[in-house]
Amino acid sequence: MNADYVEPFLQGVTKLLSTMLGEGLSVSEAPPADLEPTLTSIVDLSGKASGQLALSFPATTARAVVAAMLGADEQSLDQETVNDGAAEFANIVAGFAKARLAETPYHFQLSPPRHESGPWNSGIEEASVLRLSSAFGDFLLQVRLVPSGQ
Amino acid sequence: MKILAVDDSMVMLKILSSCVATLGYEPLTAPNGKEALDVLERKSDEIAAVILDWNMPVLGGLDTLRLIRANDRFGDLPVLMVTTESERKNLIQAMRAGANHYLTKPFSQQDLATAIAECIGAAQSKIKEPEK
């Protein structure tokens, strides 16, 4: 794991969960490969450094997180709302990391968040991957960031 | 009175609308700056403040803020920027463009409610200040 740039993204997830949802987060020791995500939120990163942030959620975790963001009942959410909420989650995490990586070789600009449904087989090549545990379930943080010229 | 919330995330619009309603205002929403300006053209007399995201398709928050400030009819409306852009340079840009308040995501419901109330309160105090 490249702590130089991964830590601010991890801090972003932690900050979002604690500030908006009143929950904590831990890095899970279970292997990432055991998780079966069905929804991945992706933010393309470009500028002084380029790469991608991806947050991959199992369906139940994504629904629970978005319901908590809205203070709504999980069953009341349609899939479009879950997709949009998961994308906004990634957008907020990327924005948090961007500010903390300012004045470093890893500074980047944000692209609009997007999502991919179904098993996310493509992944990010050479990404740092962390399995995170929350009250809403486990999910994956994947990030790759390369300063320009490398 | 109404508060216009502008964000390209449907979920964020719901979060903002819910907070606006708890403060006793009726929420209006728009998914980008262009549609927000359309709403302001039609309903600015009913609107107490605008909450603007920064990164949006079609017309972003900073350009929208500049267009609001350049408008004779609704140029004085209080504007709160609520955004993932939390670098100091962004804050300075927004303040120079005329934002009354700046809140970065992630935020708590209390942070948001306080920011909206302060944004409207500060604008009202400014109007009530006696001329020197």
What is shown here, in short?
The complex is a heterodimer of chains A (150) and B (132). With 150 residues, chain A is of the alpha+beta class.
Q: Can you walk me through this structure?
A:
The complex is a heterodimer of chains A (150) and B (132). Chain A is an alpha+beta fold and 150 residues long. Helices cover 35% and strands 29% of the residues of chain A. In chain A, a hairpin with a 2-residue loop joins β6 and β7. In chain A, α1 packs across α3 and α2 crosses α3. The two termini of chain A are 17 Å apart. Chain B has 132 residues and is an alpha/beta fold. Helices cover 48% and strands 19% of the residues of chain B. In chain B, strands 2-1-3-4-5 form a 5-stranded parallel sheet, sandwiched between helices. The relative contact order of chain B is 0.16. The model of chain B has no long low-confidence stretch (mean pLDDT 92). At the A-B interface, α1, α2 and α3 of A face α1 of B.
Proportion of residues in helical segments of chain A: 25-40%
Mean pLDDT of chain B: 92
Evaluate the radius of gyration of chain B: 14 Å
Given the helix and strand composition of chain A, which structural class is it? alpha+beta
Give me the number of helical elements of chain A. Answer: 3
**What is the percent of helical residues of chain B?**
40-55%
- Provide the low-confidence segments of chain A as ranges: none
Main pleated sheet of chain A: 7 strands, antiparallel
Secondary-structure-derived class of chain B: alpha/beta
The two chains with the largest interface, and their residue counts, are:
A-B, 24 and 21 residues
Strand fraction band of chain B?
A: 15-25%
C-alpha end-to-end distance of chain A: 17 Å
